[in-house]
């Protein structure tokens, strides 16, 4: 049958209007191998190779059946073995294998794409799959990402009680064709083909099959606030990542909160790469091949972006974002509220509709009273009898009861109701039908939101564990009043920013403080970091020699003041002109180079050392100014004398060069020791904070002695080089020891505490904000506890309020902070 395979391949290629070179571009199979297959010269016909060619040529279902028949007879003409025609039985949906692994739309015609969904031709289903090797660094990175993503969202599904007692019925229906693309475009059919209407109705079950049945790989999920869009997106990711559903060539679905994307500042691919690096730090650039995988995974189409929260973008950015999405051919899933999406697809000038190209769309329906009658008693472990509390509350048809039905028509309000009136609660849900207390739907919603915090912050038993295991010692007993105040501070900071955000990132919490407050704090901490080693050194000298109390105090104060002012000015300048949000480190220090370590690019070293050279120069100038001031005050010098000005200029030049060279060399070389985090360090807020704490400690262990040595020996070198021009210059051994030690300890500590994400967390969030009463002293414990109580959710390396409604409620509850 080999003589039938070649003519059939050539027939399909010519019908598709493709040359062998063009087919090579689309399939990844070399033109030489295509020619050998068509002429019957190839004796190694692999099913996966034929599948890739078919996917690129878009044949009909009948043509795929013909090809399957040819390959089946070809298999009988020769023995099978590894690498032979039966060596690959993993043909996925749309393959020619026809075996049990064929998915929706395969040649065996197996099953619809989802409940009530029509099955498109198999070529449509597989077109979005990237062609990549079955092994190698990029494939390993994708497999690691898929496994870690599946574990993360399985834990999140358990934490959100999605399956307790069973998934809340959330039904979907097709959206009006006025805001969607044409069916033929959604199916990606060739010109002249007639597309049958897509039927996308169903429920949350089989959402993965529904998506696989969309030829373009693009889906829009619409729903009102609290209707379950985010949970459906989570369910879709888990369905697509099931062990029996994903093959090695499928893109990895990853949820991104699109509300934080600014399409005017970042390209889609660049923003996706940045978010991958934040939430999956082992994909960060580094010395290992996998370290550079994030950008490659995005650029090569190995990521399926699930973009959650389109409606949470600023109104002025939605249309621009939609235009950017239409400029790319990436498969994607987008969730939004209907009105916001409809407004974005309609032009504000002439009313023309420009939907997300190639995208099918579904809308989530409301929960019915019958669903509530079945679900609420089981979710709250209430009696199922006809006279049970929920049966009495929901079965009536009076105005208050109908009003309650409408309020409880979204999963968010159902979650609040089951929390407030759930298992072990003494409150009677019958009070929700009290028309005098709750005359409107809004009053009911406000009541459920207001009752949420007092309910979840009820005192816990001492032995009650959390999802992370039991607390050490006594579990935290936050009062509802304190929790309300602290959550309100977090929510107000998110709402009052330049544009509303959702991410509670631990490295950004401190920026709720004003820039001036933060700059003053940086100045004070830097001053102490430098002054304390000076005073300690002088104290040691006093033990073994001359006591110089006044001189020691003034010298330490002068050095500290100079370092503090310089650090504060540098920080204020960064905050004003370049942004002062120090992103958490995605690397660790590796003192031993492993077998996979490569050489870091020279430009990375140059960028790191260049910035630190400038900082060292500024530090040297600042310290020389305050030392001169100390000499004027202590030795009664005249500040306007030529000698003082000469000493000032000389010290500024010498110390600027010494500190600049030392800082540049040490921090540049430290960059050479950085390596990407392990996959076991996949970021959660707590793990990323702990990893940054370890990294800063390791940096201190390296930078403090390295700075001390660099300053000690660099001082002698600089003085020796400049002595013929500015001499005589003296750099005594005791100067090298004292200045090197003070510079190493002070410079290392100042950098670690003031110019790293972990250091700013320590100063601003663990110290200043608790002093002002805005946050608890153990903020990390409070956030983790709020997550376990269901107030917050976790998205990668950041927390978010469980729903934007909760965020707005906390932001506006009580009096604003003074």
How is this structure best described in words?
With 818 residues, this protein is mainly alpha-helical. It is flat. The chain has helices spanning 2-15, 20-27, 31-38, 47-57, 61-76, 122-126, 137-159, 183-187, 207-212, 229-240, 268-279, 293-299, 315-326, 338-345, 369-379, 389-394, 399-407, 411-420, 441-456, 480-495, 515-544, 549-578, 602-635, 642-671, 685-726, 733-754, 757-771, 779-788, 804-812, and strands at residues 171-174, 202-203, 218-222, 252-257, 303-308, 332-336, 360-364, 587-589, 674-676, 792-795, 798-801. It has 29 helices and eleven strands. Residues 77-134, 286-291, 462-473 and 593-599 have low confidence and may be disordered. The termini are far apart. A hairpin with a 2-residue loop joins β10 and β11. The strands form three sheets. It has a seven-stranded mixed sheet. A two-stranded antiparallel ribbon has the order 8-9. A two-stranded antiparallel sheet has the order 10-11. α7 crosses α12, α13 (315-326) packs across α14 and α21 runs antiparallel to α26. The chain has four domains: 2-111, 434 Repressor (Amino-terminal Domain); 137-364, Rossmann fold; 369-456, no CATH class; 516-764, no CATH class. The longest helix is centred in the C-terminal third of the chain and has 42 residues, at 685-726. Helix content is 53%, strand content 6%.
